Amino acid sequence: MSTEPAPASAAPPEQTPEPPVATPATTATTTTSGGGEPPEHRALVLTGFGGYDKVKVQTRRGGGPRAGEVSVRVRACGLNFADLLARQGLYDRLPPPPVCPGMECAGTVCALGDGVNDRQVGDKVMVLARSGLWQEVVNVPAGQTFPMPEGMSFEEAAALLVNYITAYMILFDFGNLRPNQSVLIHMAAGGVGTAAIQLCKTVENVTIFGTASASKHDSLKESGVAHPIDYRTMDYAEEVRKISPKGVDIVLDPLGGSDTSKAFHLLKPMGKLITYGVANLLTGQKKNLMAMAKTWWNQFSINALQLLHQNKAVCGYHLGYMDEEYELIGGVVAKLISLYNQGKIKPKIDSVWPFDQVADAMRQMQEKKNVGKVILVPEAPKEESKKEEN
Ligand SMILES: NC(=O)c1ccc[n+]([C@@H]2O[C@H](COP(=O)([O-])OP(=O)(O)OC[C@H]3O[C@@H](n4cnc5c(N)ncnc54)[C@H](OP(=O)(O)O)[C@@H]3O)[C@@H](O)[C@H]2O)c1
């Protein structure tokens, strides 16, 4: 998945990122402007670490796809929690600013590089990369694109990869979820949370405990969460034990810090804790050193002997460190597409925001308002309202 950055015009030059990063692109091989220069396109650029205003729309000019790459005209991009952390300098998989963020998008293939035989111009694809996808046009290795299933919207396609690959691998590959088990899902109404709930429902008689802000509990119940818990006003571990004194079989932990220990202690014998995030680091628009110190100080730690005595498993998951695992990830995507085609999973879109309103999109997630996925689109949606009917 190796790529190099192409020159940006209005944006200051980027430092050379590590692969795999999507490159600024145009449809140069098919639509160069009269003077031979590739046309400009708009991109979102993280200009420095800090608050919402650090992500700006800028204009770029790039080249066409290189050998093994395709150009994709982007129609929708996913906003992920990691993008909020990245804006504050708390996500180590993003190259330093100025840089174009964006790990997932969906769009249409508009040009092919040499040697690409398994994609055609006009194909609708979903794209996964470490960064660089929040642009109108991107060049990406063909292997990082996945054909969209029939009938899927670009918004849904931009909401599928990061959330559902993560949820699938933590629940099934690490969690080994089986019928009649119980699962505690934190941030249950968010992107990964929603995906995890839908995937739990594909297994018979799974009891779901889900933490979320109280306003989202009706939606959680509708999705199949038996026990929504408002972690903001009550101790969720106590609430789980009131209902299930022995605890649960699986805890999905996207929070980190003291919540990882709580998760471990909530496990039944043979239970599994899968830690996959540090949301506790994020408390406001800018980096909070106190929250960082607290999260680090409360970091869960256990030695092999203690683990042996407990009959529990602890797993760590980070999709961003699996960018060379083409086969593994491709296999998961194939299973997800099959589940989508069977009607068993369907990305839930919270809201859709044009690039110009990226600050509002980030605020929507950071202020804990989203139910499902927050989507960015290069152009303003036609409807007045950006909130989709669910
Ligand atoms: N390891 C990986 O490969 C991987 C991949 C994808 C995502 N993740 C992790 O999975 C988690 C969910 O990611 P996502 O992209 O799907 O985001 P998300 O769940 O949609 O995040 C937004 C929601 O999180 C909840 N939340 C809890 N603590 C928060 C905080 N400190 N600040 C703001 N919101 C907070 C809020 O809802 P409520 O208050 O209603 O709960 C908010 O609406 C994150 O920790 C993310 O880093 C990890």
UniProtKB/TrEMBL annotation:
BP GO terms, sorted = intermembrane phospholipid transfer; negative regulation of mitochondrial fusion
A GO cellular component annotated for this chain's UniProt record is: mitochondrial outer membrane
What one GO molecular function would you report for this record? phospholipid transfer activity
* Low complexity composition bias: residue spans: 1-13, 23-32
Native organism: Anas platyrhynchos platyrhynchos (Northern mallard)
Task: Look up keyword Aminoacyl-tRNA synthetase and say if it applies.
Answer: no
This one is known as Vesicle amine transport 1
UniProt lists the gene as VAT1
- Kindly give the Pfam families that the UniProt entry links to this protein: ADH_N (PF08240), ADH_zinc_N_2 (PF13602)
Family annotation (Gene3D superfamilies)? Medium-chain alcohol dehydrogenases, catalytic domain (3.90.180.10), NAD(P)-binding Rossmann-like Domain (3.40.50.720)
Family listed:
Belongs to the zinc-containing alcohol dehydrogenase family. Quinone oxidoreductase subfamily.
Keywords of the record, alphabetical order, are: Acetylation, Oxidoreductase
The cross-references to SMART domains, in alphabetical order and at most eight, read: PKS_ER (SM00829)
Q: Where is this region: Disordered?
A: 1-41
* Residues of the Enoyl reductase (ER) domain: 50-376
Q: Which InterPro entries match?
A: ADH-like_N, ER, GroES-like_sf, NAD(P)-bd_dom_sf, Quin_OxRdtase/zeta-crystal_CS, SV-ATPase_mito-regulator
